[in-house]
Amino acid sequence: xxxxxxxxxxxxxxxxxxxxxxxxxxxxxxxxxxxxxxxxxxxxxxxxxxxxxxxxxxxxxxxxxxxxxxxxxxxxxxxxxxxxxxxxxxxxxxxxxxxxxxxxxxxxxxxxxxxxxxxxxxxxxxxxxxxxxxxxxxxxxxxxxxxxxxxxxxxxxxxxxxxxxxxxxxxxxxxxxxxxxxxxxxxxxxxxxxxxxxxxxxxxxxxxxxxxxxxxxxxxxxxxxxxxxxxxxxxxxxxxxxxxxxxxxxxxxxxxxxxxxxxxxxxxxxxxxxxxxxxxxxxxxxxxxxxxxxxxxxxxxxxxxxxxxxxxxxxxxxxxxxxxxxxxxxxxxxxxxxxxxxxxxxxxxx
Length: 350
Prior knowledge:
Strand content: 25-35%
Number of domains: 2
CATH class of the largest domain: Alpha Beta
Radius of gyration: 21 Å
Shape: globular
Largest sheet: 13 strands, mixed
Number of strands: 13
CATH superfamily of the largest domain: Gcn5-related N-acetyltransferase (GNAT)
CATH topology of the largest domain: Aminopeptidase
Number of helices: 12
Order of helices and strands: EHHEEEEHEHEHHEHHEEEHEHEHH
CATH architecture of the largest domain: 3-Layer(aba) Sandwich
Structural class: alpha+beta
């Protein structure tokens, strides 16, 4: 079996993705961008055996210095979004278990203490083998739209409230424009104001460099959609990605001044129509902030009744070292199990 951590420049990463369904979150360009934004080294775990292969995009991070770790220790996690593990081939659960075991072995040899993976809700990965090697946590659901439906069917699945507001905005003269990048700065401002209103964590306040780097990394796989008011002012905006027929609603926001109209409703409706006509098969709206079933999730769910479970996977590869670091973090006190479900790894608790 081949089992190793590979760099974004390794040709096996692109070759693996070329043969299977995946999302932009799995692209080596995106993982490299995430490493610059979130810290750590961009890599992927790659395993191959008997015509089957596994790829897990990752960030490899050094252990915080304040914990006085031994040299060479680190942990790994999948970056922001849904860059979960992917399988190629027709692997049995036993084969998957064998590849996961090889991940643990390769991880220990590389000094990896713990691993945190965000699974992709729309690209299923067998859960049973994961439960054998770590802990699965369900974080609510994410909303998606089946683009094989007719326009009338998608309209009927939209809530009455959303449909009424969409019609009102169209009648008032609100319009949606596509890839008018001169509006990016206005969108970024609106996005940050929206995160403030939602009391999101500091993580979600992406830097200016993030938006420019995202555009450079994804090229024409990234698009900016903007709602303009009848007077030509930016009323809402959203960044969407398109890879292998999956359209992702990556980031979006209403401008404070136009909140009463909630112009994102018109924007998503227009993107939905465009995506269907372009021949894509799924529009993934995602979930609430941090995976919660909050007001943002409810807003998205009023476009479609379809939703998928979002899971994370947590594994401790070096238990003794993990416990030592956790004790250092909490001054020698054992951390309550109830709290540990909320943050992993425990030694990185804010």
